[in-house]
Specification:
The protein is an alpha/beta fold. It contains eleven helices and ten strands.
Length: 362
């Protein structure tokens, strides 16, 4: 039996009490962007993904992502992620839809066509989260120092090779969208996202991505990566202000609020598996988001709910509603396309420029 639908019934004042006071001494100067992964699977997969996407849309989030069971770009269990989100699109109106797809999974033309189709079905709300998973696994962190160093060196070499291939595929896909004999999506070029946590991925993110995800436990670390990405983007001839950097955070909101107890702070920690995890209450998370945003560490957050139905509901009806109540996050989508939500201009694509040049000549 399908689970009961989630309703959005948050009352900021009621939710905030008896939790800790929420501080908003200084509002951020940059627009806050919020997104959520809707990975996992319900008893009725089709209804499950629609339900979560609608919940995120009700909170005015920029977009949702969908990968495999672990969010890494595999099969989410009911078809490939772009196909699943293509079925979600008609049931939603504003939320961006971003499938996580391995760059090595398909030929570039097929990838370009797949994402362009989602862009058409969603009327300009599609994106592509590029991933380059490492198929090799080397177990064990123990052993002599020389052995550990050799493992790290091989892992770094594999990462360089994976992201070099991902960069080539992303460039080819963008080329098809730009008029290289491929499909012409409504957004001109659907939004591209890259997980830039691995150093080897940062050049690809800086050159091709509109969004970079960063897994970091401290705002100082996220800020350093963001500054590096901006330098690399400028070095590749891009405007760094066109790159949005979002902290990627696994979220467990099943616990109570920690609040502003002396010496106690709700802070994310490394989960030991390459991710960063936050455990606490919705108000604690709102305080963390506001604090990181005020420090200019990131442009927003991409959360990965531990239990999507429970934690996304608490995130939207608790954390997001409180941020909106304090004027730190918008209460509605500013436009119709994902690029408009993110404040990104429509790129100048080659076929449009060529058309104008032809008109000028004639």
């Amino acid at each position: 039996m399908p689970a009961a639908p989630i309703s959005r019934t948050f009352s900021p004042a009621a939710s905030a009490a008896p939790g800790p006071a929420f501080t908003s001494a200084r509002r951020p100067t940059r627009t806050l962007h919020l997104a959520a992964a809707i990975d996992g699977r319900g008893h009725d997969p089709a209804a499950y993904y629609v339900e979560l996407a609608r919940l995120a849309e009700g909170g005015a989030l920029d977009f949702v992502t969908l990968g495999g069971a672990d969010g890494s770009g595999g099969d989410p269990g009911d078809g490939c992620a772009p196909d699943v989100l293509a079925r979600v699109a008609p049931a939603t109106d504003r939320i961006g839809l971003v499938p996580v797809v391995d760059a090595a999974r398909e030929e570039p033309f097929d990838l370009a066509l797949t994402v362009a189709t989602l862009d058409w079905v969603s009327h300009g709300r599609a994106g592509w989260a590029v991933t380059a998973p490492d198929p090799a696994t080397e177990q064990g962190a123990d052993g002599p120092a020389a052995l550990r160093a050799a493992r790290r060196r091989r892992a770094a070499e594999r990462a360089e090779a994976r992201w070099r291939l991902a960069a080539e595929v992303t460039a080819a896909v963008s080329g098809f969208w730009d008029g290289g004999g491929g499909p012409k999506p409504p957004q001109g070029r659907p939004v591209v996202a890259v997980d830039a946590t691995e150093p080897a991925a940062r050049a690809t993110a800086a050159r091709y991505a509109d969004i970079a995800f960063v897994r970091a436990a401290r705002p100082e670390d996220a800020g350093e990566i963001r500054a590096e990405l901006r330098r690399l983007a400028a070095g590749s001839g891009r405007d760094p202000d066109r790159l949005r950097v979002l902290a990627d955070l696994t979220v467990d909101l099943c616990g109570g609020e920690l609040g502003p107890e002396p010496g106690v702070e709700a802070a994310p920690v490394a989960d030991g598996a390459g991710g960063v995890r936050f455990s606490g209450g919705p108000v604690d998370l709102a305080e963390l988001i506001a604090r990181w945003q005020r420090s200019d560490a990131v442009d927003g957050f991409h959360i990965r709910p531990v239990e999507p139905r429970r934690d996304l509901e608490r995130f939207v009806n608790g954390t997001v509603a409180l941020l909106q109540h304090r004027g730190l996050f918008r209460a509605f989508h500013p436009g119709a396309t994902l690029r408009e939500h993110l404040g990104l201009h429509r790129p100048e694509v080659r076929f449009a420029a060529a058309d104008r040049a032809a008109e000028a000549v004639s």
